Amino acid sequence: MKLGPPIAAIVTGGASGLGLATARALISEGVKVALFDRNAQVGPGVAQEIGATYVEVDVMDQASVDSGFAAARAANGQERILVNCAGGGFGGPNKTVARSKEDGAITPYPIENYVRTIELNLIGSFRCIVGSAAGMMTLPPTDDGDRGAIVNTASVAAEDGQIGQVAYTSAKAGIVGMTLNVARDLAAEGIRCNTILPGIFDTPLLGRAKPQVKAALSAMVPFPKRLGMPEEYARLALEMIRNSYFNGEDVRLDGAIRMQPR
Question: Transmembrane stretches, by residue range (predicted)?
Answer without folding.
Answer: none
